[in-house]
């Protein structure tokens, strides 16, 4: 329905009247009125109903502290945007940092011990052990010969004492043991560390690594981070406050896309389909409709109202870096609430109101040109810019959509082509 005259300026209207009134006074016909027209359509539409809903974030989380500690930093204010992984707040970590440094130092010691075992005995150490073994072997041979001489002098020639013989025997036995010890040390050096020793060293490294990791993980918990993009909608603490494990720090809401949650009665739920595109009008922006998609239907109804929560997902728009649609806003959404039917549709601008009933002008073509006739109609369901009409209107008819409020029955018209300037007559 037209309420303004967008295609004709005041000057053109005055000029038309200046031409038409003298012609009428002389009994002459007025020139054809310039109008725009559209073709009547016929297509399937569905009954739609408006449902009131509330804007909700698609994600919302209360960030809490996993450990006890003093808040020393709070990096954002309410309304600030935060990115995924951003550090919202920091707790004091001086004591645990010292423990972590000590644990890392101990880990380095354990790793060095393991590396020493895995590398085996150095060649220089093996040469040193070999030299000791050869020296022990030489001393053993010398003392064995000395013992043999002492025994011969004592047993056969009777020229030495038992004490001298016993001393020689004892020295030879000690030399043998010293040689065996040196040889065993050399053999161990050549063989290298046992597998069991390396396994024990690896276990000690793993144990210390676990201690270090545990402290490092605890340090991370002293930094409170968000796990998705969003906006700080609530601060629950301040710098200097004590944060308890499990206590709230801040609340973050994701508003890049939002959900309009509407409660739909059970009799209308069978006609709501997930994935269908719908139009959302938020009360704060009545002149700016948003496109949305039915995202989900909660299968559990409110037992008191017998309504089912339906989420309509809407992509938010940013103005000066802030989201237009904010949590808690209210709006309407048109949802299908009946079976689909075939209807006759015209543009809403074709309907003329103000009389006893809605009407529209249908173009009548003849050999003398084009005129219009008024047709009374009943209006039905709306389908975006089109509306259902019931009356003597057929698909394919032309109806006037611009200039119709100035027309009279039977008046001659001329149709302005769609390609002409929108300011015709100005």
UniProtKB/TrEMBL annotation:
Annotated compartments: Cell envelope
Domain CusB-like beta-barrel: 260-337
GO cellular component: cell envelope; membrane
Coiled-coil region(s): 97-146
Tagged with keyword Nucleotide-binding: no
Signal peptide (UniProt feature, chain positions): 1-25
Domain YbhG-like alpha-helical hairpin stretches: 102-218
PANTHER family, sorted: EFFLUX SYSTEM COMPONENT YKNX-RELATED
UniProt-recorded name of the protein: Efflux RND transporter periplasmic adaptor subunit
